Amino acid sequence: MSVSAEIVRAYRAPRDVLRRQLAAEKNEGRVLMYLTVACLLFFVAQWPRLSREAFLDPSIPLEARLGGALLGWLFIAPLALYGVAALTRLLARLFGGHGSFYGARLTLFWSLLVISPLVLLLGLVSGFIGQGPAQNATGLLLLGAFLYIWGSGLWEAERPPVQTS
């Protein structure tokens, strides 16, 4: 299946999608691509909000705001997210998880890529409507979707291997 079809399917059956990805050959390049594309989309999602903020407060120009977001999302966030994935794996091991560091990375980075359309929606709401109930509702929807997809993926990645006889 294509990545876009898998993203849509992940909202309905996140464990099935991740199970298929975990069963495929380990490919660190694919996992890194998921993270890179997710961070790039998160950066693009910031543009409407940053444009609105630059219009309302011209003391910091739009280019400076975009430069800061670029640095944050494309250079700092990937490093921090690798750390979050490693910490997640260590916590899962502490509680009896049977997964791997690769599975923890795949689960987190795939979850971020899956929620990227909602992040783009939040960026549009933040840029065009601004602060208020619509932004809060969109943010809660985004958070709920992320926790559902990431939690389901972690459950799948950390479960004991199935015994076949």
UniProtKB/TrEMBL annotation:
The chain crosses the membrane at residues 31-50, 70-92, 104-125, 137-155. It is a multi-pass membrane protein. It is found in: Membrane. Residues 12-157 form the Yip1 domain. Keywords: Membrane, Transmembrane, Transmembrane helix. Signal peptide: none annotated. The keyword Transmembrane applies. InterPro entries: Yip1_dom (IPR006977). It holds the Pfam family Yip1. GO terms for cellular component: membrane. The keyword Membrane applies. This is Yip1 domain-containing protein.
